[in-house]
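Fold this complex.
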Amino acid sequence: MLTKIIAEELVHKIKNEIEDAENIVVVTHVGPDGDAMGAALGLWHFLMTENKSTKVIVPSPPPNFLMWMPGAEHILIYRYAESQQEADELIANADLIFAVDFNAANRLSGMADVVIASKARKVMIDHHLNPENFVNITISHPNISSTSELIFRLICRMGYFHKINLACAECIYTGMMTDTGGFTYNSNHEEIYTIIYELIKLGIDKDKIYQNVYSTYSADRMRLMGYCLYQKMKVYPEYQAALITLTKDELQQFNYDNGDAEGFVNIPLSIKGIIFSVFMREDPDKIKVSLRSEGTFPTNKFAAEFFGGGGHLNASGGESYTTLEEAVKIFEEGLPLYKEFLS
Ligand code: 5GP
Ligand code: MN
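Structure:
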């Protein structure tokens, strides 16, 4: 059986909150990834069995490779003007808001103010360090590798394992799989596999889910990846680091679509000796920075210090409101300051 990592008192509180609520909204961080979508939709499928009026609202669109997820067609995307009024009303009139897979209100981007202003009771379910206090109930377990796993644990602890249907199980598995790179990092905890065992018994086709997520790329994306590795990857052997950058023009040249650059940041880590990898993408309004590492190199500290971001030790992100050249300079000047963390 699974260890009871979520405090009994919190499980009871949340069970009561769900029972008392009629209108429930589930929100995720901007740029929802597999875990954000898995946790939100997994929870949504469960809440639907409870006959609650429930909506998943995300600040910005998920990548295309997640749109097969059961329930994804029903989510509201706040950044789309046609969804905003409906989303504002749902958030304002909600009795209960679940904030999943993020630890700070600013990760809600343009949705932050409405969520904070809502009179709804708020519950955070997350696995990032240092949760901020913008909710009534906080479930925060940074040592658990995905929020989707926490959703599974929470549903079970509330006594509702029997309500986990196939769609719910598929979403939870997707989140667990994507936040561990297909169980290649942060994935040594044996109970992960107890949960997978249960999910498979519920009928998930884990091989199919892997294909849905990792084998549905466009030819444009593959060419963009090739271009990045051949032309755009800079290696800094003395700092065991690598950097890939993409400008607006380059993205356009490869018909960039949402999510096309997902995973590029991980690739340089497979070079022998490279333990820190950074990817920068020039968006219309900012530079999006993604950081990854192996071992104990603290990407979240680096992200916080130089790019106003944060995240996990080995996977974090941030933003820069400079030019791409300046962001690169900031990165390069940061490297010597982090030499102490190299292996
Ligand atoms: P990604 O590079 O895939 O966008 O993000 C990796 C992880 O870094 C996310 O799961 C999240 O924990 C964190 N992260 C990404 N962007 C930001 C950001 O702007 N601020 C903070 N605090 N964390 C971020
Ligand atoms: Mn996550």
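The mean pLDDT is 97.
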